[in-house]
């Protein structure tokens, strides 16, 4: 019997666990090594004092990506998750005290748009048509293609996939595209919030982000009961069913090499795992700069310092011993001049003065994530990667955000806090080896999209591959699952070519 090939996956984030499943199905012997003591990476779960906090992602968008992933294994995701569609999808706090709830009903949303910008209802419908077209081409047909591969890019049939879309749809910036449909700042903010939460300026982000509005308005915002952590548990369980082994508390710090290949991965404390192929789910820049020997780097320090790194985040997990009246499950605080916020995110190394931010209150719809009569709150504020981080800055920033939050919801919470944890730049570095403390890897901007992203494979080591938020399609849970699928196909192609 032919000996199974051994794949080592470094990192048990969503992409690492997804590629582990795919390779196990292809008859690899797969071991995932993970520096932390639990799976999930940015999507880990924090349990404390009967609160259950999702530590990172909280929006379950593009459900078909996860459905399709499970179908690859003849499994039904609904056997793992109890998904509910949120209604309202989310609440937006706008300037001058205006608050709107985005509904699952398009007609309701048209009324909201008309109330902010008379006459915008028709344009909203046209914008959604454009968004749907973009979605169907990008997610329906291009999401699982390696747009960084020369072979894929030279494939002339790819051009057909873009039918119905103009060059300006794909390559203009998001701000320009939205300005064709909406005049007011308020409506643009409502539409562009996703990009803002990624810490990207809509002028730097590609127009193709408009496809997210189709996901948002037409498909809806879902939530797995118990929290997004349940998605990670589902993929972990699936991988275990397929025979994947896990080694936790295994922090890879070096490799052994032979013939331009990695033959084993070594941890800080001297543990060793032999490998035929290595898939890195951990931070791409950290791997290149800190784990690989210099001669095996594909990209040098200058390359990384010229890249736009995705924002970091100031995150607060709060347990509050009362119920809050003016919140929904997802809440966007977009009331202040966000151009200043973007400027401070990209041009400076200070903590943004008056940021846009997001608060998740899952206890509004799910009683299992907080003790009775309490609220589970998760604040995320995009801040620049690489910014100085120390205790006094954290305390000042926390006070600033809470004060603003209390003003907007019209209720005090500072004397009701019974659990509090801050997680920001230095924690991203310490827990994930995140380059400059980035929350999101490589920024998704016009110059770093599609074929302009970093490659799936090392140019120096024949058996080193990458998956996750640095590679195409980028950050976000669904994109990370897509990256694992693209990589799995690529590994099969590479083996067949040998
Ligand atoms: C605050 C926040 C909110 C977000 N919100 C959303 C959202 O609502 N919806 C959405 O779709 N996306 C969201 N995202 C983005 C999404 O969470 C990420 O894009 C995705 O989880 C990244 O997955 P990954 O597998 O690429 O990497 P990670 O989750 O970072 O996993 C990498 C793993 O590798 C491990 N590792 C690193 N180095 C080593 C090493 N040397 N040895 C061993 N192990 C190592 C790490 O510990 C980690 O477990 C959010 C992200 C953040 C940070």
From TrEMBL:
Residues 14-487 form the Amine oxidase domain. Pathway: Carotenoid biosynthesis. It comes from the Bacteria. One of its GO terms (molecular function) is oxidoreductase activity. Keywords: Carotenoid biosynthesis, Oxidoreductase. It holds the Pfam family Amino_oxidase. One of its GO terms (biological process) is carotenoid biosynthetic process. Belongs to the carotenoid/retinoid oxidoreductase family. NCBIfam families: crtI_fam. This is Phytoene desaturase. It comes from Candidatus Dojkabacteria bacterium. The gene is crtI.
């Amino acid at each position: 019997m032919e000996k199974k090939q051994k794949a080592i996956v470094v990192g048990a984030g969503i992409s690492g666990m997804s590629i582990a499943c795919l390779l196990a199905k292809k008859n690899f012997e797969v071991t995932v090594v993970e520096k932390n003591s639990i799976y999930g990476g940015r999507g880990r779960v924090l349990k404390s004092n009967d609160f259950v906090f999702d530590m990172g992602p909280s929006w379950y968008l593009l459900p078909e990506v996860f459905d399709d992933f499970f179908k690859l294994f003849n499994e039904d995701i609904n056997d793992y998750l109890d998904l509910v569609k949120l209604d309202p999808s989310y609440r937006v706090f706008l300037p001058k005290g205006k608050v709107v709830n985005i509904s699952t009903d398009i007609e309701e949303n048209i009324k909201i748009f008309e109330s902010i910008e008379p006459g915008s209802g028709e344009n909203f419908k046209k914008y959604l048509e454009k968004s749907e077209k973009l979605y169907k081409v990008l997610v329906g047909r291009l999401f699982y293609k390696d747009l960084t591969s020369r072979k894929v890019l030279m494939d002339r049939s790819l051009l057909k996939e873009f039918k119905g879309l103009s060059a300006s749809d794909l390559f203009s910036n998001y701000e320009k595209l939205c300005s064709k449909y909406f005049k007011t700042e308020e409506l643009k903010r409502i539409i562009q919030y996703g990009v803002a939460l990624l810490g990207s300026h809509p002028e730097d982000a590609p127009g193709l982000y408009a496809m997210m509005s189709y996901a948002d308005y037409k498909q809806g915002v879902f939530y797995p009961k118990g929290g997004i952590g349940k998605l990670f548990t589902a993929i972990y369980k699936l991988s275990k069913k397929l025979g994947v082994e896990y080694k936790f508390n295994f922090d890879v710090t070096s490799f052994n090499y032979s013939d331009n290949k990695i033959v084993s991965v070594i941890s800080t404390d001297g543990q060793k795992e032999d490998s035929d192929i290595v898939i890195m789910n951990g931070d791409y820049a950290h791997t290149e700069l800190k784990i690989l020997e210099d001669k095996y780097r594909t990209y040098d320090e200058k390359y990384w310092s010229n890249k736009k790194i995705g924002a970091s985040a100031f995150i607060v997990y709060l347990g509050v011993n009362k119920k809050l009246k003016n919140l929904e499950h997802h809440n966007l605080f977009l009331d202040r001049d966000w151009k200043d916020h973007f400027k401070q995110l990209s041009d400076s190394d200070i903590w943004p003065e008056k940021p846009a931010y997001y608060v998740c209150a899952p206890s509004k719809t799910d009683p299992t994530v907080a003790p009775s009569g309490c609220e589970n709150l998760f604040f995320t504020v995009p801040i620049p990667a690489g910014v100085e981080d120390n205790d006094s800055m954290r305390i000042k920033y926390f006070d600033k955000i809470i004060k603003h939050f209390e003003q907007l919801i019209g209720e005090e919470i500072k004397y009701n806090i019974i659990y509090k944890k801050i997680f920001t730049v230095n924690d991203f570095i310490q827990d994930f080896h995140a380059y400059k403390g980035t929350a999101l890897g490589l920024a998704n901007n016009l110059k770093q999209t599609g074929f302009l992203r970093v490659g799936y494979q090392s140019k120096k080591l024949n058996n080193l591959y990458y998956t996750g938020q640095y590679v195409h399609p980028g950050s976000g849970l669904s994109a990370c699952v897509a990256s694992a699928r693209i990589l799995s196909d690529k590994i099969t192609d590479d083996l067949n070519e040998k």
